[in-house]
Amino acid sequence: MEFEDVVADEVALRALYPAVSELAEIKSMAALDAHARAFIARSPFVCIGTQGAGGRADVSPRGDAPGFVEVLGDGLLAIPDRPGNNRLDSLANILANGAVGLLFMVPGFDETLRVNGRAKLVRDAALLERMAVNGRAPRLAVVVEVEEVFLHCAKAFRRSKLWDPEARQDRGEMPSLSKMILDQTRGAPEDEGEMAKIDAGLEEAYAKSMY
C-alpha cells in the first residue's frame, strides 16, 4: 500500500509534536534505583524486545511468580529462561545482537518500567540453581547489563483499560489456540470431538512443562 504523506526524518517527526517536558527528558537513569528494584520485585511479567543481525525485530513475553527476574546489582539483572516452544527467537537474536529492551508490568499498576541494555546468555550453575522452581532449574538465564531505566506513564493502560474487569473479553468468542494454529498451518480437524482431544492435550502439556 502506498501512502501520500510519510514521515521520513526525525526533524519532520518532532515538528508534529510539542517539545518533550523537562521531567520526561531527565527521568532516564543509568542504574536501577530503589523504586526500579521494587517495581521489578512486584512484576510477574516482562516483554523482551530483541533484534537479529539482519534487523528482524521480535518481542517475546516472559512470566512467572512476582520477582522472578533477579536483580544482581544496580546495573545487572537476570531473567530465567523457562520452557517454551523452542523457537528460540529471542535467544538467537541476543547471540547476534545483544541490544535488548524490557517492559515490566505489574497487575493493577497502570505504570510500567522500561529497561534498555545489553544481554548475554549465561549458564552459571549457582545463578540457575537460585532460579529453580519445583526442583527444576532453567537451562540458562538472560543476563542484562542495564544502560537505561525509566518509569513509563499510565496513558496506554488507561486508554486500553487493560486491568479493568468490565473490559475483559470472552475468550470463548474466538477458537482455541490449537485450532487457530492448525487453521493457519496444516488444517484443523472438522470433528469437534477430535479437536477437543487436541485442546485437552495442549492443557496437559502446559501442566507438565511449565518448568
Describe this structure in words.
The protein is an alpha+beta fold and 211 residues long. The protein folds into two domains: 18-160, Pnp Oxidase, Chain A (Roll), CATH 2.30.110; 169-209, no CATH class. It is built from eight helices and seven strands; from the N terminus they run H-H-H-E-E-E-E-H-E-E-H-E-H-H-H. The protein has helices at 10-15, 22-26, 34-42, 89-96, 125-130, 155-160, 177-184, 192-209, and strands at residues 45-51, 57-63, 70-73, 76-80, 99-105, 112-122, 141-152. The radius of gyration is 20 Å and the shape is globular. The mean pLDDT is 97.
How do the strands and helices of this protein lay out in sequence?
Elements: H1 10-15, H2 22-26, H3 34-42, E1 45-51, E2 57-63, E3 70-73, E4 76-80, H4 89-96, E5 99-105, E6 112-122, H5 125-130, E7 141-152, H6 155-160, H7 177-184, H8 192-209
Antiparallel strand pairs: 1-2, 1-5, 3-4, 4-7, 5-6, 6-7
